[in-house]
Amino acid sequence: MTTPAEPAMQTVAVIPGDGIGPEVITSARAVLDTVGAKHGIKLSYKDFDWSCERYTQTGAMMPEDAIETLRGFDAILLGAVGWPGVPDHVSLWGLLIPIRRAFRQYVNLRPIKVFDGVESPLRAPGHVDFVVVRENVEGEYSEIGGRLNRGFPEEMAVQESVFTRLGVSRIADYAFELARSRRGYVTSATKSNGIVHTLPFWDEVVAERAAQFPDVRMDSEHIDALAAKFVLQPQRFDVVVGSNLFGDILSDLAAAVAGSIGIAPSGNLDPTKEYPSMFEPVHGSAPDIAGRGIANPIGAVWSAVLMLEHLGHPDAAREVMAAIEATLAKPETRTGDLGGSASTVEVTEALVAQLR
Ligand code: NAI
Ligand code: MG
């Protein structure tokens, strides 16, 4: 007889950030503690004060050895960064982008659902439940390019899009694998009729990968028509895969269709698990409501669900998801952005009570 092994300790670096970031992360932590205790999940946390506040005091969003520090963790949980007075490119390029790129987080995962109790701006959204899989490290967001003849009439700017066989194959594979665990349907966002080099290449490589997943159905849609369908028929989608730029735009559009930015989660994943993946709500630091205790914590809590899935705790993830659904369904446990009047703490307590 062998006794079951103690579950291994997993380490999480927590970066609450600015504004409502710390408020919603406190809530996500409370939910993780509750569900973790119930399922015997051992997570150990370390907090980092990297933020715009740190930038104004020290001149840097994070210390020089930040990437080295984070490298040893199993996951990173982030609130939001950004604050008036600090240019947004400082908070983005000083923290978020270096982390995404150093840890080759090549998948940006954005699930979208229309929940009972959350009003979509669409008249009849129906049953909406899909995931946008955005390529997160190459494509249109490359650093290759430059400016010439600044200040002259012939001034010009060039920026190269970079699509690699490796990069397109791995994001397509991720989308097909994910579809297998869902409804088995992938939509690939393209524009190969107008962009004549990179996107026909994208189409070719995606089709090659699709052939490896005969059990998954696949459609290619031009990005313009696809944007219209997100609004007109959002029920039809299961997994939507797109390049960095297309995925960025589609995921915000999808979050708007679902009703509130306050509930939207995201994961920046290295599916190989060689490097830590990062989980963060889609919303920013919301300076307009920061410090008032009214931020919707669901986006951060749902991001923690994605983290639980990534760390191999699907049962705990499912339970938190059910608690989110139950909490959103009751008017008295909805925050102001959803038309309710509950505080962040009240929503957190409702989630925790549901989980106990
Ligand atoms: P934002 O997402 O912070 O706020 C947009 C609007 O949505 C505001 O009216 C806000 O009150 C509301 N809102 C956002 N999250 C909410 C929540 N959880 N509950 C209730 N209401 C919520 O976007 P904004 O105002 O464009 O940016 C503010 C700062 O956040 C900027 O410095 C920006 O650069 C930064 N930002 C950071 C992100 C990140 O850390 N990943 C992402 C987006 C913005
Ligand atoms: Mg965006």
Automatic annotation (TrEMBL):
Belongs to the isocitrate and isopropylmalate dehydrogenases family. Keywords: Manganese, Metal-binding, NAD, Oxidoreductase. GO terms for molecular function: D-malate dehydrogenase (decarboxylating) (NAD+) activity; magnesium ion binding; NAD binding. SUPFAM superfamilies: Isocitrate/Isopropylmalate dehydrogenase-like (SSF53659). Coiled coil: none annotated. It comes from the Bacteria. Residues 11-351 form the Isopropylmalate dehydrogenase-like domain. Pfam families: Iso_dh. This is D-malate dehydrogenase (decarboxylating). It comes from Mycobacterium gallinarum. It catalyses: (R)-malate + NAD(+) = pyruvate + CO2 + NADH. Its cofactor is Mn(2+); Mg(2+). Its EC number is 1.1.1.83. PROSITE patterns: IDH_IMDH.
